[in-house]
Every structure is written in C-alpha cells, then in structure tokens.
C-alpha cells in the first residue's frame, strides 16, 4: 500500500483557510479592497473561485476579445443570455490569451479585475484541483479513474517544497543546479515519522510557512518549485524519509503517503 496514517493538520490550520472564510462574495470584496490598495491578490482566491458552483458567463464569446466578464449568480444587472457554470468549468473554458477577467460580485461595488497573470493562476488551480484529487484517491486506496494518472502527477509543474539553504524561491532547474537540497520535514509529534513536506500550490506553502513562524520559525528555509518528476525523484533518493505529506497545514486535510509512492509514480 502507498498510504500511511493520515497526519493531523489541526496544529497548523490557519483561520483564514479558504474553506473557513465563508461566502465567495466576502472573498471577492476583500481582494477588491486589497487591489485598490495596490496589494497583490492572495493566491487563496483562485482556489475559492474554482470551488464556487454558480457563475454566469459566456466564455466562448470571448475568443475575439482581450477581456471578459463573469457574474456571481444572483447579482443584479447580469445579462440574461449568460450560461451557468461552476468554477472548474469556467477555468477550463477561459481562452488562453485572455488578458483581463472582470468578476462582478455586487452591483454597488466595482468588479474585481484579474490581469493576465491572475487568469493564468486561476487556470493553474484547475490543474491543482485535479492533482489533489489524485493524491487523495491514492491515500484512500481508491481507483484513480483517469487516463495515465501517474503521468499527470509526473508532468505537474507546480509542486513546491522547502529546503535548507537560505531565503528565496527557486524553480526546478535552479534547484537542480544547487543540488543536493534536502526536503524539509513536516512535524509529526505523535508518531515521529520523517515525512517530507510538499505542497500542491503556493497558498498551501504559505499556510505552512505561517504555521512555522508561529511555532518554530522558518529562517534558513528556501521554497523550491518542482515538477512532479523532480519531486518524486527527490523523495525516492533522499535517505532517511518514511514518506511525504502534502499540504500539511492545509487548505483541506493533509495527505500523507509512504515513500513507496515515489516508485509507483515514477515506474508506471
């Protein structure tokens, strides 16, 4: 079996985890306020949008435009001819070259305007959702129900790890050049297992770093972005590991897998 006992994330869960913040309208209002203060939009927004069930839009009419408009279902003033979509469908339907996406959430407030990099981040979270579902099904020992699931995990380009080596952020190519970097461990006080901490998205990484700052500090840790191929290869080759735990501080429930999962992913 590739599964090991689930690691509790209760000690690390932040009160601002996306699923605990409530209505998407409040998320959009907070992000709009941050945008007006010229602050970056939190990555957690895109996870929350992917999970939302009721958008009104017509993305297939955007192909000749550089921008598009999306409305929350029920917002006054939305055009009548729009289609109902959930967040997954919306992210999948957005044209790759869309430069701006306006999300209308309140008739009395200006829409939240996502630029091209934000739109790309939203589309990335579509892939994140698929990868997290695959990892969860691996943990549960269930059928993966997609074609070539391990190839999907190997090709995913947005895993993150933490390593000792100073502050900053590296991509996989830079990290490989600075090898060997050892994967930092997630705390496992109850069982004492050596579980590498890995993350499926930046918001999960940020939650863990905040938790570390509250408890033990994160000085000397560097975040590294890896492909799935690079991540599972490092997991397989690093001595002393019992396994890996994905998103140990959330959002959602941590997913702990035995080290043998690396063989399953790399050899299939």
UniProtKB/TrEMBL annotation:
<protein>
    <recommendedName>
        <fullName>SseB protein N-terminal domain-containing protein</fullName>
    </recommendedName>
</protein>
């Amino acid at each position: 079996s590739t599964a090991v006992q689930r690691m509790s994330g209760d000690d690390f869960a932040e009160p601002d985890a996306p699923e605990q913040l409530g209505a998407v309208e409040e998320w959009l209002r907070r992000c709009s306020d941050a945008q007006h203060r010229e602050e970056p939009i939190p990555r957690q927004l895109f996870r929350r949008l992917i999970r939302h069930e009721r958008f009104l839009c017509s993305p297939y009419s955007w192909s000749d435009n550089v921008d598009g408009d999306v409305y929350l279902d029920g917002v006054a003033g939305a055009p009548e001819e729009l289609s109902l979509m959930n967040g997954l469908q919306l992210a999948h339907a957005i044209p790759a070259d869309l430069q701006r996406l306006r999300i209308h959430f309140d008739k009395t407030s200006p829409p939240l305007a996502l630029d091209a990099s934000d739109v790309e981040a939203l589309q990335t979270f579509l892939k994140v959702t698929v990868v997290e579902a695959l990892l969860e099904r691996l943990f549960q020992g269930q059928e993966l129900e997609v074609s070539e699931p391990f190839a999907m995990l190997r090709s995913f380009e947005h895993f993150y790890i933490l390593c000792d080596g100073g502050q900053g952020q590296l991509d996989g190519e830079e990290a490989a050049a600075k090898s060997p970097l050892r994967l930092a461990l997630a705390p496992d006080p109850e069982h004492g297992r050596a579980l590498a901490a890995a993350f499926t998205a930046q918001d999960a990484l940020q939650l863990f770093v905040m938790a570390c700052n509250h408890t033990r500090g994160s000085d000397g840790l560097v975040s590294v972005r890896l492909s799935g191929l690079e991540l599972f290869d490092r997991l397989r080759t690093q001595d002393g590991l019992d396994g890996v735990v994905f998103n140990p501080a959330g959002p959602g429930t941590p997913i702990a897998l035995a080290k043998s999962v690396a063989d399953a992913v790399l050899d299939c």
